[in-house]
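Marked as duplicate of an earlier ticket. Keeping the data here for the record.
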Amino acid sequence: MSIALMGLGGFLLAGAWSLHKQGASKVVIGVVSALAALSIGGGILWMLPK
């Protein structure tokens, strides 16, 4: 599951970068970046020992 969350975060991060390059609004870029950070953070937390 952690690999899937981190992979999703990578796709979202690439999407945010693409949106930035295409001149999207900062709000949209911020939302996608925040979702990427949550996904990557969740993947990292999933890997921590319980």
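See parent ticket for discussion. DSSP finds two helices and no strands in the chain.
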